[in-house]
């Protein structure tokens, strides 16, 4: 018996998490002796509100589904920023699969699941990273999602630009140390802020930053000053003021900053958390804040609506463009402008054009991922994917 309703890795790989109509399709094709060689592409059908570009993520997971199948796969590498379609309206294929349809039909559902969900979270993290600027950004979203996928959530948050993550297992799988301060529960357990802070300092390894939660019982200014005066080596204070007591959060941070400064605690940093999202972080851009803790805004972010469609059939060794209504037929590759970040799709085999936006030279970013079932793309370390995303973010305009 299962303890929880969680699919195992074996069940995912075998196609057990597919939609039933793919099983029906395979049965019909098998009974009729039909197994076409197809070219299928994954493109965006819809973007979340206030999102014009996206980060493709979950590609590495999708490749694990398709490895050792009789297919070849090419597309964008993990962490590539792209626009959903070019200036000519042609949708950007983030992944393309060629081979017998029977080899991957039932894997469409889990493959899209990997890419839709992970891309959605990584994209939202990237937008929040852009809004946060150079300030510290931590992911506190583990408690806002199903525990079985928490490591994936934290992975997406990290590569999307978060400086640290709170989940122990998520950090372990990323080969980084988890980030976190202390909960209100610690203060309440002691019944006294100062006792809790000092106990934390006594027992927690010195490598863990001393950041005191400073809003449990008293005014944020009072608790922040108390922490600064009583905790040796204090790095900062964290304000997690509940919305019912928050009022003007920016004004609270300004008051705390002022009172700390005039008492000689100018090096004490101020971190804020609690219901923060991209909009609220933008509102705090000019506030005296050194870092943000973001939870559900990343872990519960809307998915990118990707879909997979057959856009070409191989007949007698030649590719024939074909697609359903509303789709662009034919095999395609993607170019990206390193100057402005613009992307576009062109016919497979074409040379990179000049950018349709800035007229600068572009580069082809479609790469070979799997050749005849053999993985030829070496996935980057998450830290390297993160740096790649940050480099691309630097040229994207703030929205």
**Coarse morphology:** elongated
Main β-sheet description: 7 strands, antiparallel
Under CATH, the topology of the largest domain can be stated as nicotinate phosphoribosyltransferase
Uncertain regions: pLDDT < 50 for 5+ in a row? Answer: none
Strand arrangement, major sheet: 13-12-1-5-3-17-18
Give the proportion of residues in helices. 25-40%
Structural class by helix and strand composition: alpha/beta
Helix count from the secondary structure assignment: 14
CATH superfamily of the largest domain: nicotinate phosphoribosyltransferase
| The number of domains | 2
Number of strands: 18
Average of pLDDT: 96
Proportion of residues in β-strands: 15-25%
What Rg is obtained from the alpha carbons, in whole angstroms? 25 Å
């Amino acid at each position: 018996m299962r303890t929880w309703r969680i699919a195992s890795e074996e069940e995912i790989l075998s196609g057990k998490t597919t939609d039933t109509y793919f099983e029906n399709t395979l049965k019909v094709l098998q009974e009729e002796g039909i197994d076409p060689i197809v070219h299928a592409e994954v493109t965006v059908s819809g973007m979340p509100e206030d999102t014009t570009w996206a980060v493709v993520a979950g590609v590495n997971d999708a490749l694990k589904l398709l490895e050792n199948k009789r297919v070849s796969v090419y597309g964008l590498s993990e962490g590539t920023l792209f626009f959903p379609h070019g200036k000519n309206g042609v949708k950007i294929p983030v992944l393309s699969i060629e081979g017998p349809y029977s080899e991957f039909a039932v894997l469409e559902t889990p493959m899209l699941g990997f890419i839709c969900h992970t891309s959605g979270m990584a994209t939202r993290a990237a937008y929040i990273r852009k809004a946060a600027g150079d300030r510290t950004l931590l992911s506190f979203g583990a408690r806002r999602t199903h525990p079985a996928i928490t490591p994936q959530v934290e992975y997406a948050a990290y590569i999307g630009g978060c400086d640290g993550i709170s989940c122990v297992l998520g950090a372990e799988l990323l080969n980084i140390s988890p980030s976190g301060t202390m909960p209100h529960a610690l203060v309440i357990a002691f019944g006294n802020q100062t006792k809790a802070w000092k106990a934390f300092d006594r027992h927690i390894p010195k490598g863990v930053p001393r950041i005191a939660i400073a809003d449990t019982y008293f005014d944020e200014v009072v608790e922040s000053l108390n922490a600064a005066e009583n905790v040796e080596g204090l790095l900062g204070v964290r304000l997690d003021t509940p919305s019912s007591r928050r009022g003007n959060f920016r004004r609270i941070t300004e008051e705390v900053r002022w009172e700390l400064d005039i008492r000689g605690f100018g090096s004490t940093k101020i971190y804020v958390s609690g219901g923060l999202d991209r909009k609220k972080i933008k509102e705090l851009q000019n506030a005296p804040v050194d870092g943000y803790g973001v939870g559900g805004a990343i872990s519960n972010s809307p998915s990118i609506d990707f879909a997979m469609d057959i856009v070409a059939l191989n007949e007698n060794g030649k590719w024939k463009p074909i697609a359903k209504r509303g789709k662009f037929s034919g095999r395609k590759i993607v170019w990206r402008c390193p100057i402005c970040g613009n992307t576009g799709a062109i016919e497979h085999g074409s040379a990179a054009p000049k950018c349709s936006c800035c007229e600068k030279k572009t580069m082809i970013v479609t790469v070979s991922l799997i050749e005849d079932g053999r993985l030829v793309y070496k996935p980057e370390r998450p830290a390297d994917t993160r740096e790649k995303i940050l480099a691309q973010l630097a040229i994207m305009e703030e929205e």
